[in-house]
Amino acid sequence: MTSPLDALTRKPDRATDRAALDELLDEAKVGTLSTVVEGLPWSVPMLFARDADDILLHGSTGAGALRHVAAGAPVSFTVFVMDGLVIADTLFDHSANYRSAVVRGVLEPVDDAKSVLEVLSDKLIPGRVAEVRETTRRELAATVALRLPIVDGQWIAKARTGGPGSGSADWTGVVPMRTVYDEPITYSGETVPDSVLALAKPPVG
């Protein structure tokens, strides 16, 4: 029997493929991890990184809910990126261009917390790993590292692109959206690291 969680029931034409899922997971910085704890819903936004067929997450060993999901509770992980506001001639027809995904499964503990921290760091701030000191054993002992395998049949990705659905004599259109970095704000030290400076540089081309 097919689960209603396995496919889109509304606007199935917006479903996207695994390549689009990977692109979204590589671009987005934050997702929401959800599960059920003692009969109640639990959700928390988390930084993450995709590493091949895994979504990598980390947190504190003192977080009770993370211990709960690390023990095998089923989870869902959702990601959403907005690409533009779609402006129509009626409020009912206004919309948004976006990409989203839901990945379901069971989190698995990763013994090598150091590698998870480094993959996450390189996604958020490319090159930063080489600029900082080694993570200490005490810091690693305080870190829980987890992976969520991306398994066929346990994820759904969808997207909307384009303009308003119908033509009009009034102005309609799309206001594109994107994430940009401002100049770094210094709190200590004198020289801004190269990895941080690179974030604020506009993309080439």
UniProtKB/TrEMBL annotation:
UniProt name for this protein: Pyridoxamine 5'-phosphate oxidase family protein
Listed SUPFAM superfamilies: FMN-binding split barrel (SSF50475)
InterPro entries in the cross-refs: Pyridox_Oxase-rel (IPR024747), Split_barrel_FMN-bd (IPR012349)
Pfam short name (any one): Pyridox_ox_2
